[in-house]
Amino acid sequence: MPDYKSYPVWDAGTRWFHWVNFICVVGLSFIGLIILNGDFFQPATQTKINLKVVHVWIGYVFALNLLWRMVWAFFGNRHARWRAILPGGRGYFAAVRSYIGSFIKGSPEFYIGHNPVGKIAILLLMLALIVQAVTGLVLAGTDVFYPPLGGYFADWIAADGVTPADILPYAPELYNEAAYQSMRAFRKPFITVHLYNFYVLSGLIFLHVFAVVMSEIKGEGDIISAMFSGRKISEQQPKDQVREKTNE
Question: Which residues cross the membrane (predicted)?
């Protein structure tokens, strides 16, 4: 009979981040695609503004949640910390080769935390999420004049005699036309990066889900359920546990 053992892995802070991030990404993607395809949906101006406002508020939750995860990587359990989730370190490339070889053979090595290849995916996902959050905060200021930069952009484009606090989206009568066009030129690279990074992020998420499903099929330790329970179950000896005992 297989001797299955249960191993604690994802603490509550990590699990909460994962599912809040999932909900935010789904919501932001759905609303963002409606905004992006405005020519098809043809929403009224106020509807368009409302969509952008909701997009921004979800974006705030998304950005704060991401910031929380970056801070938690200094304080969480050993599987949540930076050194456990980012690639690198002594013997890392040998571990990557070993893991890939075991995966190809149909019996992937069991890791309690992220496996060596998974760490590369985590790095790429984190970078894409950070880029999306930063560019989104800039665009929140240019589109609906929301914090943290909305006041700066409102002051930039306000027409003579107009108080920046009174600036509204889609109200050209309140804008200095030359300043507005200058602001839009400044905004352009941020919207371009935000758009194309969304495609990159979507691709990375697809690969992440595909890899998780394939790992589950090959029996790699209840990866999906662990994000609910915080524990992995396997009959294999964990490779990362072996490495830790070796280094003691």
Answer: 16-36, 56-75, 120-140, 196-217
pTM, to two decimals: 0.90
Q: Which tens digits make up the pLDDT trace of 6-39? A: 899 999 999 999 999 999 999 999 999 999 998 7
The span from the CA of 175 to the CA of 157, in Å, is: 5
For residue 204, the number of C-alpha atoms closer than 13 Å in the C-beta half-sphere is 19
Taking only the tens place, the pLDDT of each residue in 169-215 is 999 999 999 999 999 999 999 999 999 999 999 999 999 999 888 87
| Sign of the alpha-carbon dihedral angle for 108, 111, 117, 122 | positive
Burial 171-202 (b: 16+ CB within 10 A, else e): eeebbeeeebeebeeebeebeebbeebbeebe
Superfamily for domain range 5-247: Transmembrane di-heme cytochromes, Chain C (1.20.950.20)
What whole-number distance in Å separates Cα of residue 69 and Cα of residue 16? 9
Paired strand residues for 7: 232
Using CA atoms, how far apart are residues 211 and 155, in angstroms rounded to an integer?
A: 47
Of the candidates 32, 10, 127, 30, the residue with the CA atom closest to the CA atom of residue 76: 10
Q: In angstroms, rounded to a whole number, what is the distance separating the alpha carbons of residues 67 and 121?
A: 19
